[in-house]
Amino acid sequence: MIALNAKIQGSVNWRWYWKWTELHSDHPVTTRRWMHETPWQLNGDQTAYQGTVVDCVNNGICQFAPGGLLLRHTYPQGDGFIASVLLDGPNFGGLEGQMHLGTFETRDETLFVSFNVGLADTQVDYYSERKLPVIDAINKTEADVICLQEVWKESDLDDFIGALSNKFPHNQYWLQNTNAVNWAWGHNGLLILSRYPITQTDTLQLDYFFLRRSVVYATVDTPLEGQIDVACTHLSTHINIPPYLGDYDSWEDEQNAQAQQILDHGKVDVLMGDFNSGISTETITAYTPEAYDIIVGGGYFSPYMESDAGCTWCVDNPIASENDGDLVLDHIFLDESYRGRTITSEQLYTETITIKDWLGRSQATWLSDHAGIRISLEATPRD
Question: Taking residues 163-190, what's their average pLDDT?
Answer without folding.
Answer: 80
